[in-house]
Amino acid sequence: MELRLPNQFQPSSLGKLQEVLSESQTIDNVNVDFSPLSFSKPMAMLVAGSYFRRWISKRRELGLKTTKSGISEKNNAHSYLMHLGFFDYAGMKDVGKNVGVAQGNTRYLPIREIRRADLDESIAETGEELIDAIVFLSDGLANVLAGEDNGEAKKGFSYSIREVIRNALEHSGADSCFICGQRWVNGHSEIAIIDEGCGIHKTLSTAYELNEEDALIEAVKPGITRTQNMSKEENIYKNSGFGLYVLSELGNSFGWFCVGSGLRKLTCENGNKVDAELPFKGTFVGIHLNKNPRSFAGVLQDIISVGEEEAGKEGRHSAASEISKTV
Fold first, then answer.
1. 239 is a domain residue
2. Which UniProt keywords apply (predicted)?
3. Same domain, 117 and 258
4. By C-alpha distance, which of 148, 225, 152, 157 is closest to 191?
């Protein structure tokens, strides 16, 4: 069987890729043809790689033959994926660099795995908290998203990104999460964070009664947090439930935002929120900016003020944490 990849790893191509991989899961002698692939974006790349990781792992368990073809260093998209560590991440260990080898810069962040065990070791040595241990990583993604000359936006983005990473490591049950980011010459930028844990529905179900179909819609509302019913003493990290909400609002106004988990994905773009079917075991978050707000501090304050009012009216945590308000 020949499995030809789409022309691009982008959000719109993920559904078909997942479907084809699922249909070919137990078929012997499958060749994956990479030759059509000519472009890749961070979020879709991480999601596609996660699909391949599980697909390849299961096929190895079943003793099925899998081959790949059409990969060329002369193809810019392929060489880019090789450099980022995509093939290693996707379970194809003999192509390109391993995850974590490429260093990146202020314009791109190659695929990196953030292991909870490594952070716990650092915490034990320094005495810092988890939220502090991931600041360097969230700052790297924020730098790509905001641009190196926009310190105001970088600081604001870093908080929300930090919340997403922390949620992945604290609440998903996964041992690690993966991150990646890219800023293009036209000023567009995109970052992605992904884990292969229990998913948003299971996480939020510890604090709320909700159906899986509604989990993503609820997750991007202000004040929605797993710690909703915890006392101030129990909520030691002061989770306020504004991280996803802030990113979704920024993406909705200045590009797009997407979160997927379980059986659904939610895309926020041009003032609309579109819920669609997309199976994914874990959680992925992506934000793509076509431009940054001219006055990031003003926009952020407006988003938080509206969110606090909405959360208060609906009886949730009605105050964003102080750090989320700081730029």
1. yes
2. ATP-binding, Nucleotide-binding
3. yes
4. 157
Provide DSSP, 38-107: -EE-HHHHHHHHHHHHHHHHHHHHHT--EEEE---TTSHHHHHHHHHTHHHHTT-TTSSPPTTT---BTT
Helix (H, G, I), strand (E, B) or coil at 184: coil
State the maximum Cα–Cα separation within the chain, in Å, rounded to a whole number: 57
Q: DSSP label at 13?
A: G
How many whole angstroms separate alpha carbon 210 and alpha carbon 256? 25
Dihedral angle of Cα 132, 134, 136, 140, to the nearest 10 degrees:
-140
DSSP string spanning 280-310?
EEEEEEEEEESS--SSHHHHHHHHHHHHHHH
What is the model's pLDDT at position 326? Answer: 53
Q: Are 106 and 202 in contact (CB under 8 A)?
A: no
What does the alpha-carbon distance between residue 25 and residue 54 come to, in Å, rounded to a whole number? 10
Q: Which residues pair with 169 in a beta bridge?
A: none
- Return the number of other C-beta atoms located less than 10 Å from residue 102's C-beta: 18
CA distance 7 to 12: 11
The predicted structure's pLDDT at residue 150 = 80
**According to the model, what pLDDT value does residue 148 have?**
74
How is residue 174 written in tokens? 């996964």
**Looking at the structure, do residues 293 and 226 belong to the same domain, yes or no?**
yes
| Tally of domains in the chain | 2
CA distance 46 to 28: 25
- The CATH code of the domain that includes 114 is 3.30.565.10
DSSP state for residue 12 in the 8-state scheme: G
Does this model's pTM top 0.90? My answer is yes
Please spell the DSSP secondary structure of 199-230, one letter per residue: -HHHHHTTT----GGGHHHHHTSTT--TTTT-
